[in-house]
Design brief:
Blueprint (H helix, E strand, L loop, with lengths): L1 H10 L6 H8 L4 H26 L3 H20 L4 H5 L18 H28 L12 H6 L8 H24 L5 H29 L4 H16 L1 E2 L8 E2 L2
Parallel strand pairs: 1-2
The chain binds fe (ii) ion (2 copies).
The site of one fe (ii) ion (FE2) has 5 residues, from helix 9.
C-alpha cells in the first residue's frame, strides 16, 4: 500500500487535514459520506464518457456510451430503478468503441477511459450495495464546491481545454485515493476493506489521466500541473461549510 500511495502523496500538494477525517467518521455524517461517494463514482464515469464522446469516438459509439450509463443516471437523478434492477445489467458494453476518423487523440484515450468507466460503474454498484444493505434511503444531494472549483480554471481554447480537464481528472482521482486510504482505518470493517480495495484502481486512474495529459500536450506541462495542484490544495485546506467527500476543512 505504501508504494501505491507514495506517488499520490507526492503529486498532491497537501494531505487531508485531520479535521476532515474527524468529521467524516462521525456516524451522523455516514449517510452523506456514502451517498456523496456513490454520486462521485457516477460522475467519474460521466466525465470520462463526456471526454471520449467530445474528443474521440464516432457517433454510433457515442450513442452506445450514452445507453450504457443511462440506467445509472436514471437512478441517481430520477430515482428510477434500484439495486436489484441495476444488478441485472451486464456491466459492460455490447459493442466496441471506435475512434472517429478525424480524432487526433485516438484509441489510447478511448481504451483507458472505457476501462475507467467500467471500473467506476462497478464502484458505484458496490457503494449502492452497501447503502442498500444498511437501509439508507437514497436521496440526491447537491454537489460540493470541489470539482467546480477546479473546472472553473480550465482554459477555453483547445487543446488546453482537454489538457486542463485531464489534469483536473488526475487531481480528483488522486485525492479520492488519498482520502480512501486515510479514512479506511477509522471505519467499520466492511467499509475499511471496501475502501482499501478501491485504492489500486483509483491510483491507476490518476496515472492514466496524467499520462494522457502529458501525451496529448506533447510538451512540458509541469507548470500547469503545479498550478492545479495549488488550486486543489487551497480547496482542501480552506474552510468549507458543506461536508462532502471532497470538502475542505469543516467549519466548526
Ligand atoms: Fe471509483
Ligand atoms: Fe476513479
Amino acid at each position: 500500500m505504501k508504494e501505491l500511495l507514495a506517488p499520490i502523496n507526492n503529486f498532491l500538494h497537501c494531505s487531508t487535514p485531520d479535521e476532515w477525517v474527524d468529521a467524516a467518521v462521525k456516524s451522523e455524517n455516514r449517510t452523506v459520506l456514502l451517498t456523496d461517494h456513490m454520486i462521485c463514482e457516477l460522475k467519474a464515469a460521466q466525465t470520462a464518457m463526456w471526454l471520449i464522446r467530445r474528443y474521440a469516438v464516432d457517433k454510433e459509439s457515442g450513442d452506445a456510451l450514452l445507453a450504457w450509463l443511462a440506467p445509472y443516471e436514471d437512478f441517481i437523478y430520477r430515482k428510477n430503478g434500484s439495486f436489484e434492477s441495476l444488478s441485472k445489467l451486464k456491466n459492460g458494453l455490447s459493442k466496441q468503441i471506435k475512434a472517429r476518423e478525424d480524432s487526433p487523440y485516438g484509441q489510447d484515450l478511448i481504451d483507458k477511459m472505457v476501462l475507467l468507466i467500467k471500473e467506476e460503474l462497478h464502484h458505484f454498484y458496490q457503494v449502492l450495495e452497501i447503502i442498500t444493505a444498511r437501509d439508507i434511503k437514497y436521496d440526491n444531494i447537491s454537489a460540493g464546491r470541489y470539482a467546480k472549483g477546479l473546472i472553473k480554471h480550465v482554459k477555453n481554447h483547445e487543446p488546453d481545454t482537454l489538457i486542463d480537464k485531464l489534469i483536473c481528472g488526475a487531481y480528483i482521482e488522486a485525492r479520492s485515493c488519498e482520502r480512501f486510504a486515510k479514512l479506511a482505518p477509522h471505519l467499520d470493517t466492511e467499509l475499511e476493506k471496501f475502501y482499501i480495495s478501491l485504492l489500486r484502481s483509483e491510483a491507476r486512474h490518476y496515472q492514466d489521466y496524467l499520462t494522457l495529459a502529458e501525451q496529448i500536450a506533447g510538451q512540458d506541462i509541469s507548470q500547469r500541473i503545479e498550478f492545479f495542484g495549488q488550486v486543489e490544495a487551497e480547496l482542501i485546506l480552506s474552510t468549507d461549510k458543506d461536508f462532502k467527500f471532497h470538502s475542505g476543512v469543516p467549519a466548526s
